Amino acid sequence: MAAPLILVSCSPGEQRTALLREGQLEAAFIERPARPEGIGHLHVGRLSARAPAMAGAFVLLAGGETGFLPDSDGAKGRTEGEWLRVAVTRAAQGGKGPRLAVRAGPAEGPLRLLARGPDAPLRLAAQHPGAELRTDSPACAARLRAALPAGGVTLLSRPAFDDALEDAFAALAAPEVPLPGGGRLIIHPTPALVAIDIDAGGAAGGRNAASHRALNAAALAAAARQIRLRHLAGAILVDMAGMPIGRRKDLLPGFEAVARQDPMLRVVGLTGLGLLELQRRRVHTPLHEVLGLPPSPLSRGLAALRRGVRAAAARPGARLTLTASPGVLAALEAWPGALEEFRQAGGPLHLRPDPLCPPGQEDVHAE
């Protein structure tokens, strides 16, 4: 089996990382370096309050953020006001701070960040030592070469993502996933849980019981892949298409074998209504929280800048104009470094607000 390939695509305000195995997308990360999710960051923090009902304590971090330290990860026996060395083990969620764990070593104030954790390219390189890593950013290549064994990083003279991979990442931001044999998955995150509906659509017409079983088995495998790629977490409910509850139980052994490929995913069973109940441990920020669902003004603006960099490369020296809604332009202006990075990579950029510009129709063109 060929070694996996790690591709890193850098654009103003954003870094996207893909792990490919024999051409198949196996992992996808979208990071915004100006505000990293912080997994692996090492802090000096101060225990601010015990929380016995939650079996843990709250720890104040630099910048005013508060994280949660479970008793099982070092809070037990600690006292309020105590200084601690803690690492971020789970990204912040829905207004709640990150999850923390105590790391060995003495600690004393002030509050500060001691070290940053690895980003997606470095994590994947550590998990797959034989993988080749390719990036289209000189700065990213230099940083990765300083951290990884010699010869493992290639700087590309073209975009790291081809059209097929661009389409695959765009599809991860969409709520609907077409299924190869017909039908679709509909993915609907809520604050409490993620609901996934298997919609057989026209593929359901005239099918016998065996065909329905095969359709649902294939759809469940596709759902497991989407759960992993999108970093979905927490409670997840899957509604199968057109099967009595008794027959749905027959699909559990096969799906459990699929689910075991994801160490963070656990199959709980079927609810009384016949919904497949899953639970996935949260570590990284789900893609829909990074991008928005539908995509946020910032996500649409960063995507426009990414297209603009390619347009600038195709027409060196051209003065480009970005036409977008005022909300998109305001989001870009507020995001640290995004417009400055574009101007360094692509040259001058004029911003033209258009209140009638529909979402997703942001346009970068030469004047």
TrEMBL record:
All residue ranges annotated as the RNA-binding protein AU-1/Ribonuclease E/G domain in the record: 165-283
Cofactor(s) required, per the database record: Mg(2+)
InterPro entries in alphabetical order: RNA-bd_AU-1/RNase_E/G (IPR019307), RNase_E/G (IPR004659)
GO biological process, alphabetically ordered: rRNA processing
Gene Ontology molecular-function annotations: endonuclease activity; hydrolase activity; metal ion binding; RNA binding; RNA nuclease activity
Cellular component terms per the entry's GO annotation: cytoplasm
Key words of the record: Endonuclease, Hydrolase, Magnesium, Metal-binding, Nuclease, RNA-binding
Superkingdom assignment: Bacteria
PANTHER family assigned: RIBONUCLEASE, RIBONUCLEASE E_G-LIKE PROTEIN, CHLOROPLASTIC
Protein name: Ribonuclease
Species per Swiss-Prot/TrEMBL record: Teichococcus coralli
Lineage: Bacteria, Pseudomonadati, Pseudomonadota, Alphaproteobacteria, Acetobacterales
